[in-house]
Amino acid sequence: LAQFKKIAQALFTLANQLSTTAYQNVQQARFIAERQRAEEALPESERTTRANEQRLLMAQVIGRTGAWELDLVTNTLWGSAEAYRIFGLPSVAREFPVDELESFVPDRTRVHQALVDLVTLGTAYDLEYAINPADGSAPRVVHSMARLERDALGKPVKVMGGIRDITEGKRIEQERTKLETQLQRAQKLES
Questions:
Q1: pLDDT one-digit tens code per residue, 68-118
Q2: C-alpha separations of 94 from 81, 91, 143 in Å
Q3: pTM for this structure?
Q4: Which residues on adjacent β-strands are paired with residue 143?
Q5: Residue 70 neighbours by CB under 8 Å, 6+ apart
Q6: Cys-Cys with 163: which of 6, 47, 144, 146 at CB 3.0–4.6 Å?
């Protein structure tokens, strides 16, 4: 009888576990089905927009290019996930204090003045500069371009820009220059 009780208890425990697992699987299937119905219910334009957003995110990562936007009315800076990754920050698109981001730029005076000149004088914002990433990784060289947007009255309201990590390209350029110099020296020695 004791052995029968042990077997019965083991079977009861197994049945309970199977029941719990089956319930969880049914719940998960319901969740997936509801999500699929919700996706299908989205207008075609919204599905297209979501797909395009995913493509843009992938292109930014592959191209090591981020986007940024400075609202001149509120003085808030928004950056894409890739822009923040370039600066050694968590890769999450969000707003960020301008002063804090500029703290990663050794030549911040020149970079800030270029932004001021864009807003006040309409001077092109197209520059390369070094950054010291927040995560302590090796310094990087970036290329940033921006354009100014004005409201209907012509007042500057927003600066929209892009930033690209060109560190590897700069390293290759320096190596090529070094090799060309060595080749020229070797050719002079031969003559």
A1: 999 999 988 999 988 989 999 988 878 888 888 889 999 999 999 999 999
A2: 8, 9, 21
A3: 0.67
A4: 128, 164
A5: 76, 77, 78, 98, 115, 158, 159, 161
A6: 144
